[in-house]
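wait is this the right file?? whatever heres the structure
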């Protein structure tokens, strides 16, 4: 038995355990075992019944508000078990300070975390707090509502119904994010070459409506991960990465991120994948399994989520992961989800219609579908330099994707 973020050992009873009670009540609950040493061995507590009463009095006298907890004494070992439940009246303070667990240690929360606990205790979200933006306009939102719902004009009543304004007419943070201008962080998109040291493109969308940020990111994505091919007499569009999966990943990042963090959503575009990373880990109350299975029951930003739902950007609350997975249903390559304490990252690989090709290789291959071309024409159609095209063709030919016809100046290539 080892200590963890939800389990702490105490050989004796001293006031240091009260910090951990605060931490457990504020974040997810946990258990403290008195009469157990650091190695996890039971050493017992002398007179455990009196010690149990002492623990109870210390909690009631020192933690405000009083947390929900239970005490149990093991008569055989003399070990006292203190189980603390996560509370709903946060923050739970010890000596006017709130605490949290950091692995097996208990530390004081910073100002940002304390602010979040206060909002959570009042059953509020950051997006519902007042904004200081003056004279907001909503032209982008109005356009989207017209297209999706036929609403001709965004009025104060519309904004209040959507909870973008409070009943007194004051703007909320959610309202600021959906207005035409805002002061919060946005989406940072970067396209890389063969390594992260090679930047091919960089676009940052910020201080504009998050609806405009979403649309701009999708447009940039389509510039690089959709290719046109000639099939017979027809020109068809082929997706290297499912657009539906990318749309869902970006929408999820916008509606689930922590907006009180001054950090951008990061969209990293690589030759073989796209990564969408959102600031903030999973909301309190959601496990990694629940997230991956689509059992999301807690919304970090319910106001923004509701607007995206009404506009048809998301289908149903909590189904984003499932829709991303569904977009790869017929592909051997599958998306990956990385969950950390302060971020959630979705990795979207190339679909395997092109095997394990990079986007540049796939673009060259798409130009050669159903026709034979000299290298000069491939250079013209792809916009790549001759040396790069030669290298790409050599790699494709070595893996039998491309056939080389002729030699010398008459060399041509076909897929």
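ok assuming it is, sequence goes like this
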């Amino acid at each position: 038995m080892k200590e963890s973020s939800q389990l702490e050992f105490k050989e004796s009873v001293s006031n240091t355990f009260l910090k951990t009670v605060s931490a457990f009540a504020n974040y997810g609950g946990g258990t403290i075992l008195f009469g157990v040493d650091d190695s996890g061995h039971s050493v017992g507590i002398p007179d455990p019944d009196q010690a149990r009463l002492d623990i109870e009095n210390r909690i009631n006298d020192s933690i405000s508000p009083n947390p929900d907890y239970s005490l149990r004494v093991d008569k055989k070992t003399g070990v006292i078990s203190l189980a603390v439940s996560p509370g709903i009246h946060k923050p739970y303070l010890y000596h006017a300070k709130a605490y949290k667990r950091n692995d097996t240690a208990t530390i004081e929360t910073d100002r940002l975390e304390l602010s979040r606990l206060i909002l959570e205790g009042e059953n509020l979200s950051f997006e519902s707090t007042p904004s200081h933006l003056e004279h907001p306009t909503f032209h982008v939102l109005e356009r989207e509502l017209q297209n999706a719902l036929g609403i001709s004009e965004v009025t104060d009543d519309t904004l209040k119904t959507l909870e973008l304004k409070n009943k007194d007419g004051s703007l909320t943070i959610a309202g600021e994010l959906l207005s035409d201008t805002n002061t919060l962080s946005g989406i940072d998109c970067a396209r890389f070459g063969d390594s992260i040291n090679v930047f091919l493109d960089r676009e940052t969308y910020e201080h504009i409506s998050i609806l405009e940020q979403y649309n701009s990111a999708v447009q940039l994505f389509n510039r690089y991960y959709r290719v046109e091919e000639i099939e017979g007499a027809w020109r068809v569009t082929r997706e290297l990465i499912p657009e539906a999966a990318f749309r869902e990943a970006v929408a999820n990042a916008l509606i689930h991120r922590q907006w009180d963090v001054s950090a951008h959503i990061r969209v990293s575009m690589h030759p073989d994948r796209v990564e969408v990373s959102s600031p903030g880990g999973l909301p309190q109350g959601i496990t990694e399994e629940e997230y991956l299975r689509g059992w999301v029951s807690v919304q970090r930003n319910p106001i923004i989520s509701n607007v995206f739902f009404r506009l048809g950007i998301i289908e149903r609350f909590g189904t984003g992961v499932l829709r991303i997975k569904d977009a790869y249903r017929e592909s051997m390559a599958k998306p990956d989800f990385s969950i950390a304490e302060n971020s959630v990252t979705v990795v979207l690989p190339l679909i395997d219609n092109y095997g394990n090709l990079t986007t540049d290789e796939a673009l060259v291959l798409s130009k050669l579908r159903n026709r034979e071309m000299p290298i000069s024409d491939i250079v013209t159609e792809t916009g790549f330099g001759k040396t790069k095209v030669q290298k790409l063709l050599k790699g494709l030919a070595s893996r039998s994707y491309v056939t080389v016809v002729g030699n010398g100046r008459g060399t041509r290539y076909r897929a």
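The chain has a mean pLDDT of 91. so i think its the right one actually
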